[in-house]
Amino acid sequence: MVNKILTGLTILIICSCNDQDQTSVPLIVPGSLEGRRTELVKYVNSARQNIRTFSNRFGWKKLAEEEFADRVMIFDDKRRFNINLLTIAGADTLMQLPETFCAALENRTLMAMTPEYYSRVYPEGIERNSYEKLLTHEMAHRLHIRILNGNEEAMGPIWFYEGFATYAANQFSRSKTELTKEEMISIMKDPERGSYVKYNYLFRYFVERVPLTELIARAGNDHFNEEMISMIK
Q1: Which of 61, 101, 205, 230 has its CA 20 to 30 A from that of 88?
Q2: Of 10 and 188, which is predicted with more confidence?
Q3: Any idea where the domains of the chain sit in the sequence?
């Protein structure tokens, strides 16, 4: 069940995909994780349900009816994860990816490292159901693009589209993070990737003041950041 794009890498990852305990989306794992298939399928199914529930809540039920991925691949080797992800994305396989880059949904393939790896490299993200939330986060990016009719350029600044994904996945919902007005503005103006916990704080701050659907519609505007900053008290 491995797509042609992975030809030559199947020996490397020793993929396995059985019908037993299978989701409606094929789950591909290395032999070393085969004994955990039932556990991993539950994470995937929970994430699929999470994104459907979120979509229904905001009137996007039809946008979540089609699966966001044709297959799921879970790895316990970061180097193999990197190579497969870059190959599927059509990128240079020699590119160096951060250790904390451990999940992505590219070309309808959801890829992730194991729950243990995620917890180890990103302890900030440890919370109840944190792994299924990680998978939901990646699906949320694709939902966001569907809402925008495929226009990725209209997703807004990084704090907004990553904040949306954390919000949709209900990540950091119990975070005690507090930001001053100055800190909020600094983060919003920074084009470099930063703290997802802080992005989540920013997103929740604005979604309490402006309806979510309106925020998404406005995020692609050139002056979106300035408009949002003007609302900060």
Answers
A1: 61
A2: 188
A3: 15-147, 150-233
CA triple 145-151-155, angle to 5 deg: 65
Which pLDDT tens digit goes with each residue over 154-170?
999 999 999 999 999 99
Strands (E) across the chain are located at 15-16, 27-30, 71-75, 103-106, 109-113
At 120-134, the pLDDT tens digits run 999 999 999 999 999
Rounded distance between C-alpha atoms, residue 157 and residue 134, angstroms: 20
Predicted structure pTM score:
0.90
Q: Please state which architecture CATH assigns to domain 15-147.
A: 3-Layer(aba) Sandwich (3.40)
Q: Which residues of 78-111 are buried (b: 16+ CB within 10 A; e: fewer)?
A: bebbbbbbbbbbeeeeeeebeeebbbbbbeebbb
